[in-house]
Amino acid sequence: MKFSFVPILVCTYILLCFSALTEETRAINLFKEVRCLVCQGQTIHESNAEIAEDLKTLIREKIDEGETDKEIKGFLVEKYGDWILMTPPVKELTYVLWFAPIIIMAIGLIVIFRRKIAKA
Amino acid sequence: MRLIKFLPLIIIVLLCIFFFFSLNNDTTKLSSPLVGKEVPEFSLDRLFNNEKMTNKDLISDKPIVLNIWSSWCIPCRAEHDVLMVLSELYDVDIYGLNYKDNETEAKKFIEGLGNPFEKIGVDTSGRSAINLGVYGVPETFIIQNGIIIYKHIGPIHMNELDEKILPLIKDL
Amino acid sequence: MSLALHYIANLLLILCLVTSMIQSRFLFNIQNYNLFSISQISAIQFLSILVSFFILIFLFITSDFNFDLVYFHSHSEKPLIYKLSGVWGNHEGSMLLWILILVLFNFLFSLSKSRSQKFKEITVAVQSLMIFGFVLFLLLLSNPFNINNENFNDGLGLNPILQDPLLAIHPPILYIGYVGFSLIFSLSITGLLTSEVDKKWATIAKPWVFAAWSFLTAGIALGSYWAYYELGWGGYWFWDPVENASLMPWLSATALIHCVVVLQRRNTMQSWTMVLAILTFSLSLAGTFLVRSGVLNSVHTFASDPGRGLFILIFLFIILSSSFLLFALKSEKINKPSLHNISSRNTGIMVNNWLLISILIVVFLGTMYPLATDLLYNQSLTVGPQYYAISITPIIILFLFFMILSPQLSWRESKLLKILNEMRYILISCLTITFLTTLYFDLFNFTEILIIFLSLILIISSLSLGLNFKSTKVIVKSNFGQSIAHAGFGIFMLAVVSNAVYSQEKIYDAKVGSKLQLDEYIFDFKNIEQEEKDNFNSIRAYLSLSKNGKDLGEFSPEIRFYSDPPTITSETSIIHQFFSDVYVVMNVPQNQESISLRLHIKPFMNILWLGVIMIILGGIITAILNRKKYEENAIN
């Protein structure tokens, strides 16, 4: 019985590729990445404020029109700025945000191990 | 290596300076990326008229004020008086964008409070408003030659009209 | 009556101010005052604040609206417990609570045994200097006992979102945590001034630091649990600025408790311990106060006032810059050369210390970056949960690895191969469990599998380190606290990852009578009712939950419309099961025809809280087990 998921998985996969289901998941994934403009810290997925509903309709329509996620996000950023995306894009302005922690971590670890080796 | 002991001190001093400046910085004001760009294309039915209002109406050497409003929005009522003053006393064309409203309510609103607008476009779906990067009602744009010069979020109060909007329009 | 209380309370605050000044004389080498002993003056400090705190409680209970604070934050019809929590549900009152805990710690420390009279004198003096600053701030800029001349009939009420039993106890516990670190801070300053940062210092600091850390952890956990069931956004942590502000001192405190242990055992890492002690207290201060200054905006904040913010900032600046300057000048003197091998427990703890600091940097950048870009480039950014997830995951994986490894290493030197050999049974069994679960739940994300695997090893290896299984009986070892806390962290991580992977949610626009489905659960939407209560009106939906035909219970999510002040809140309705929480949230109705309901399945939430409770218990156990040693060591 445990392996009955295999044919089901295959079927869903095929279905996924052609049906509206992908569009729905795509839509929800996008909703979770777009900030609700008038609420505090919520995504439009979580909010049912007027503007959030409008944006959801807009995103659904754009998906129907065949736009990619990138294009849709690009459109929103063009209108509202990076602020509307829950996750800041990687660009010059955000290099420090994205890369500073990992660089600082690496430097620290190198210092710890090198000092220890020198003393050992 | 001797300097490294001063590192925490330096970081703290820098952070305090940073906090000092952000203390006085109003984070609630958002700049719109559309400032400096052309007004996006739109074509809307007019409220008291069967013709259309389009983005081409907003192209003029004179500064144009575009106000997004709605009859159900309470701050818009307060702001309406300010718009009336602006249209009566100053040589400025004001255009309206009626956001997600009921036609009869919207007409009642204008008939009751007066009409400061040259033309009013009706945006039932709210789509043109999103194209303009609107958060909610009311919002106001100042446009010249079809380029957005300034955006104001929320109702314009009388003192804001005097201190911000009018000097800006006079400069243009 | 009101006027008399106003004067008495203010006089008590001034009394505390004066006594604090007397106490801090040791810092300036003034010795010629000997009328009372240190602990007697500390008792006066403590009692004066305690009594004024009781006066404030009395004012709230009797609803004396002649006082501004009561007028703005209470209401005569409020239930007693919320009148009480109203005392600290606002800026001024919570400041007084903060000061109360500060003097309490000062008092307790003045009673305890210490390495020398001088050491105690200076520590109490540093602590009193801080008390002086805070009481001055209270008197000048946020006096809770301000009187108005109007005769108000009733108050303006307490924010209904704060009307919650958990939120009533959350601030005191969190504050005990934050303020506990003030004592560690004072101890560090004393250590730096007297150049006495050594094993003895660590032995004295250890119970305090573990106690403060446990309270801080508990405070954060309570806040998180509150957000989980009250906000109903489907999560327990939102990376909101206020939450982050409490997480940052926790991260640095967690690093600190490990350093204190190293210092106690090996007499090394003095400078780093001092940096962490000062940093933790700085972050605690920033956590409580910058949040209120209007620098950070969030759903949790009290009304903010920039003028107050400036005072706090200047005060913070004076404390921090002077202590770090002291550190820079003195660190050479306290540092002892350390000799230990690369594969020793020291290295492991140092690595994890650094990893904690790296996480701290992630949280700090995530919280502050939007402010910085806004200030410097006039560009707004949103830093959402995804940023933290992406940035912290690689660090956490390394962190788990060293958390497993370090306790296996000895303090001097260990052979890695030997450890691998000793752990082979644990490794193999965990690998098998992970493999089977992966297959069973068809989980194919490598990162998630890796974290689950590491967490499992951590749980088992930590428990086996703290307990000794002899054929018939189980022996609890002295490092039991550590073992419980580490295993708790493993359980916590396991729950976090599984929860993230298996959470499900769906939003329905539902009508009464419809059956909604999510996963295998059926939600039967039975009824909707409007109710009128004392201080609010509500819309309540009734749903029953069943799975495979088995009835599991009833939901009654609610939307409340409060009148004073006008606020709408949404009350989540949760059914707790052993492996998963199922819950329903109602959105504010926008039209008459249907109600928007959000259904959530949150697996492993109970296990997540279990992990957190174990972490807290571990801290408390360590603090208590160390008291004995403390007494012995403090004298010699």
What's the short version?
The complex is a heterotrimer of chains A (120), B (172) and C (636). Chain B is α/β, with parallel strands linked by helices and 172 residues long. Chain B is built from 5 helices and 7 strands; from the N terminus they run H-E-E-E-H-E-H-E-H-E-E-H.
Key phrases:
heterotrimer; B: 172 residues; alpha/beta; Glutaredoxin; 7-stranded mixed beta sheet; 7 strands; elongated; C: 636 residues; alpha+beta; 5 domains; 6-stranded antiparallel beta sheet; 4-stranded antiparallel beta sheet; 18 helices; flat
Question: What report would you give on this structure?
Answer:
The complex is a heterotrimer of chains A (120), B (172) and C (636). Chain A is an all-alpha fold. Chain A folds into two domains: 2-88, Cytochrome C biogenesis protein (Helicase, Ruva Protein, domain 3); 90-120. Chain A is 64% helix and 0% strand. Chain A contains five helices and no strands. Chain A has helices at 5-18, 21-31, 50-64, 69-80, 95-119. In chain A, helix 2 (21-31) packs across helix 3. Chain B has a single domain (40-171), classed as Glutaredoxin (3-Layer(aba) Sandwich), CATH 3.40.30.10. Chain B contains five helices and seven strands. The model of chain B has no long low-confidence stretch (mean pLDDT 85). Chain C is an alpha+beta fold and 636 residues long. Chain C folds into five domains: 1-156; 164-338; 340-407; 408-502, no CATH class; 504-606, no CATH class. Chain C is built from 18 helices and twelve strands. Chain C has helices at residues 2-23, 38-61, 68-73, 80-86, 91-111, 117-141, 165-194, 199-231, 241-266, 270-289, 306-334, 345-377, 385-405, 416-422, 424-440, 446-466, 480-502, 605-635, and strands at 467-469, 474-476, 504-510, 515-518, 521-532, 536-547, 550-555, 558-562, 567-571, 573-576, 580-586, 595-603. In chain C, the strands form three sheets. In chain C, strands 4, 5, 6, 7, 8 and 9 form a six-stranded antiparallel sheet that branches. Chain C has a four-stranded antiparallel sheet with strand order 3-12-11-10. Classes of the chains: A mainly alpha (120), B alpha/beta (172), C alpha+beta (636). The A-B interface holds A 37-38, 50-51, 54-55, 57-58, 77-81, 83 and B 30-34, 100, 125-127, 129-136.
